[in-house]
Every structure is written in structure tokens, then in C-alpha cells.
Here is the input.
Amino acid sequence: MNAVIDIRYDEIAGLVLSALKAGSDPLDVLGELREGLRVVGERYQEGEYFLSQLFLAAETMKNALEVLQPLLAATDQGESKGTIVIGSIEGDIHDFGKAIVSSLLTAEGFHIVDLGVDVPSVRFVEEAEKANADVIGISALLSTTQPQSRDVVQGLERRGIRDRFRVILGGTGVVPEYALAQYGVDAAVNDGVEAVKIISGWLEGEQR
Ligand code: B12
Here is the structure.
């Protein structure tokens, strides 16, 4: 966590590797990294860190994830439990959370279709239909981008296919009760492990 706050981007990969070798659980290491980023975000918000430091902290996280992500995604490659179309919504380029939850879902046996970042709401609808997906996953970390998840839901409704897909919104700063009430999504989370539980619960027993 301190290595992220102190932005030790050139040392972080080695530190993560040492922690893993010493027996730390990858999810605990992830928790530490996220906590570090939360503090960086707070310092940025309070004007203590500049935007350049936010970027370098992001670089630090990227280097850490190169080591960590393959472990989170380790899977036996069995039969797919379902398809999830995922992306960061238009105007949002944050993608660490999306990458992590995708790895966790892959490890659980789900097939992921990653649309990338800055994805218009209409594309979520089109791609979900194309992939015959079970779930649409929207990543949105900004208070200005989160409301667009409503556009995805309305896009599904307009096409008369709302009941074919479950929609989940995720990202730091997402307030689940608010998102559920305001955007019409089926679930909203700010934790990837919880997201996996929710999606697994939805698709358990559903034969593809
Ligand atoms: C890293 C970072 C950046 C990086 C992003 C790099 C990248 N490739 O992702 C950079 C430097 C580019 C950046 C830019 C900006 N950022 Co920024 N950023 C952050 C920071 C520090 C960490 C975010 C992060 O990666 N967390 C770690 C991940 C693993 O956690 P997570 O996103 O919560 O993901 C988990 C869950 O939420 C969930 N999840 C996430 N997505 C999804 C999706 C689905 C479908 C599901 C099911 C689950 C799920 O699973 C994940 C694993 O547990 C946050 C601070 C914070 N509090 O987090 C600010 C923060 C999000 N940024 C902020 C801001 C303001 C910006 C900028 C506007 C700054 C600027 N003036 O330019 C720009 C906007 C760029 C844009 N258009 O998107 C604000 C947002 C405030 C708000 N409420 O709107 C924050 C909160 C900082 C702050 N406190 O002010 N940022």
C-alpha cells in the first residue's frame, strides 16, 4: 500500500512478487494496492497530489497488475458458465477495476467480451446482443459517467430485450442503493469479489 502511495513505480513489481513468494494471497495484495490508490485519490482530491502524481500512481498500479493479474485469472478453462460483455462507459478511461473483475470472472469460468474503455452506451447493447451475452458489465468511476448506465438499460428497453440481460454497474465510488434506484441496473458494486458472487448467483444452474 505504501509503495503505491509513495509512487514507487519501478519497485512495485518486485515488491508484489516478494509478497506472493512469501505466501500472501493475491486478493489480499490487490486489497493493499486498492487501498493505496484510494489514498492517492484522496490526496489528489485535496490538492496534495497533482494530476501527474495520479498518472504515476496509475503507472505503479499497471506494473503491479502485470505480476498479479495472471494469478487472479488462473482457471482450469472448463466449460463457460456464461458470457459477460464488459466495458468502461463513454467518457471513462479508468480500466484497472474492469481488468481485475474480468480476471476474477475468467477464473470463475465466465467468458469475457471486453469492449475496452470510453464505450458508448449503444455499443453495450449491440455487442451484448451479438455475443448472446448473459450479463452486461459497466465500469464507471466518475460521478459524471455513472448515470450513463441508465442509457444502457433504456437502450435495452427500447429494443424490447431488457429481460434477456442482467446489467451490473461497478467502480469505486458507486453507491449501490443509489445506482439501483436511479439507473435501473440489476446490481451495483464497488468490489470485484462481491461482483463475482452476484453474477455467479444469477447464472448458477442456468444452462447455456
Ligand atoms: C488510477 C486512477 C486514475 C488513472 C486511471 C488509469 C487506468 N488505466 O485505469 C488516471 C490517471 C488516468 C485517472 C484519470 C482521471 N481520474 Co482517476 N482515479 C484513479 C484512482 C486513483 C484509482 C482507481 C483505481 O484504479 N482503483 C483500483 C481498482 C482496482 O478499483 P475499482 O476501480 O474500484 O475496481 C474494483 C471494483 O469497483 C469493481 N469494479 C470496477 N469496475 C467494474 C465493472 C464491473 C462490471 C463490475 C461488476 C465490477 C467492477 O471491481 C474492481 C476490483 O475489486 C481513483 C481513486 C480511487 N478512490 O479509487 C481516481 C478517481 C476515480 N479519479 C478521479 C478523477 C476526478 C479523474 C480525472 C477526471 C482527473 C482529471 N482531472 O483529469 C481523470 C478522468 C479520466 C477519464 N476520463 O476517465 C476521481 C473521481 C471523482 C468522481 N467522483 O467523479 C477519483 C475518485 C479520485 C478522487 N478522489 O478525486 N484516474
Remarks:
- Strands lie at 83-88, 111-114, 135-139, 166-170, 187-189.
- Residues 104 and 205 are 20 Å apart (CA to CA).
- The first helix runs from residue 2 to 5.
